[in-house]
Amino acid sequence: KNEVEQSPQNLTAQEGEFITINCSYSVGISALHWLQQHPGGGIVSLFMLSSGKKKHGRLIATINIQEKHSSLHITASHPRDSAVYICAVPANFGNEKLTFGTGTRLTIIP
Amino acid sequence: EPEVTQTPSHQVTQMGQEVILRCVPISNHLYFYWYRQILGQKVEFLVSFYNNEISEKSEIFDDQFSVERPDGSNFTLKIRSTKLEDSAMYFCASTPPEITDTQYFGPGTRLTVL
């Protein structure tokens, strides 16, 4: 069964700073999800990636399958980026149900 | 862009009452999931559903829970007799037929059991 670790648990940064959130998992996977949870509780899927790197606007996600590690980066951070960022992976290889990390609470101060 | 919708956004109920949480997955999706998140805790898998039957369920998904796809569009989660510890956010997700490792999440229903 996959175990997911995220770091840091909490991150406070000044507007404009470059942000990195890390995720490690224990069992090989077909794909990894990065999700954003807003203060109201809703979840938005940011990325699903299985190799290399993906970029959407100021968000960049990378994954190293061999090291079982992924990072989410935010460039030129803004207060509206303040949210909880969650990493999720399939519970086992080939199994679609997801196992979630505890999330990283990001606060960007103007 | 198509999206998963959930109703209601917030449900308040008395302990022991039955609740039904509703989800409308994206129309051509075939795999459906319910997850829940107790306040301050991780999101947890409850159940997956494919081809009109449960394909997998967690230990949390006991006899008090049931899922149904009563028509071609809705996917429901029923809790028969709610307990205080059922208070949580409940998320529905669905997966398209051709990309089974991508899940699209609904906005969630916040259930409060008093």
Descriptive overview:
The complex is a heterodimer of chains A (110) and B (114). Chain A has no helices and 11 strands. With 110 residues, chain A is mostly beta strands. In chain A, the strands form 2 sheets. In chain A, strands 2, 4, 5, 9, 10 and 11 form a 6-stranded mixed β-sheet that branches. In chain A, strands 1-3-8-7-6 form a 5-stranded antiparallel β-sheet, with no helix packed on it. The relative contact order of chain A is 0.34. The mean pLDDT of chain A is 91. With 114 residues, chain B is an all-beta fold. Chain B is 0% helix and 50% strand. In chain B, strands 2, 4, 5, 6, 9, 10 and 11 form a 7-stranded mixed β-sheet that branches. In chain B, strands 1-3-8-7 form a 4-stranded antiparallel β-sheet, with no helix packed on it. Chain B is globular. The mean pLDDT of chain B is 92. At the A-B interface, β5, β9 and β10 of A face β4, β5, β9 and β10 of B.
Q: Fraction of residues of chain A in helices?
A: under 10%
Helix content of chain B: under 10%
How many helices of chain A? The count is 0
Share of β-strand residues of chain B: over 45%
Count of helical regions of chain B:
0
pLDDT below 50 for ≥5 consecutive residues: which ranges of chain B? none
Offer a quick outline of the entry:
The complex is a heterodimer of chains A (110) and B (114). Chain A has 110 residues and is mainly beta.
Primary descriptors:
heterodimer, A: mainly beta, 6-stranded mixed β-sheet, 5-stranded antiparallel β-sheet, 11 strands, 57% strand, B: 114 residues, mainly beta, 4-stranded antiparallel β-sheet, 0% helix
Task: Give me the secondary-structure topology.
The complex is a heterodimer of chains A (110) and B (114).
Chain A: E1 4-7, E2 10-14, E3 19-25, E4 32-37, E5 43-49, E6 52-56, E7 59-64, E8 69-74, E9 83-90, E10 98-100, E11 104-109
Parallel strand pairs in A: 2-11
Antiparallel strand pairs in A: 1-3, 3-8, 4-5, 4-9, 6-7, 7-8, 9-10, 9-11
Chain B: E1 5-7, E2 10-13, E3 19-24, E4 31-37, E5 43-50, E6 53-57, E7 65-68, E8 75-79, E9 88-95, E10 104-105, E11 109-113
Parallel strand pairs in B: 2-11
Antiparallel strand pairs in B: 1-3, 3-8, 4-5, 4-9, 5-6, 7-8, 9-10, 9-11
